[in-house]
């Protein structure tokens, strides 16, 4: 099963590279973070389907 921190599909606009827990300031930045989070969830799901039991956040970040 994938890492819950990576695989959970909670708030798509929360998180992302270098956000440091701060909310995005512009709609464009929110959109970018949401798309990035969606991509991370999809990559994590594909890794799980391929037989990996978990995915480190850094490894998924490298693939995205």
TrEMBL record:
Signal peptide: none annotated. Residues 1-12 have a biased composition (Low complexity). InterPro entries: BTP, Histone-fold. Its main location: nucleus. Residues 1-30 are annotated as: Disordered. It is found in: Nucleus. GO terms for cellular component: nucleus. GO terms for molecular function: protein heterodimerization activity. Keywords: Nucleus, Transcription, Transcription regulation. It holds the Pfam family Bromo_TP. Residues 34-64 form the Bromodomain associated domain. The keyword Transcription regulation applies. This is Bromodomain associated domain-containing protein. It comes from Eleginops maclovinus. The lineage of its organism: Eukaryota, Metazoa, Chordata, Craniata, Vertebrata.
């Amino acid at each position: 099963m994938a890492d819950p921190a990576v695989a959970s599909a909670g708030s798509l606009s929360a998180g992302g590279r270098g956000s440091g827990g701060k909310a995005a300031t512009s709609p464009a930045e929110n959109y970018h973070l949401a798309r990035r989070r969606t991509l991370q969830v999809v990559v994590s799901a594909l890794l799980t389907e391929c037989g990996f039991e978990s995915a480190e956040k850094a490894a998924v970040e490298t693939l995205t």
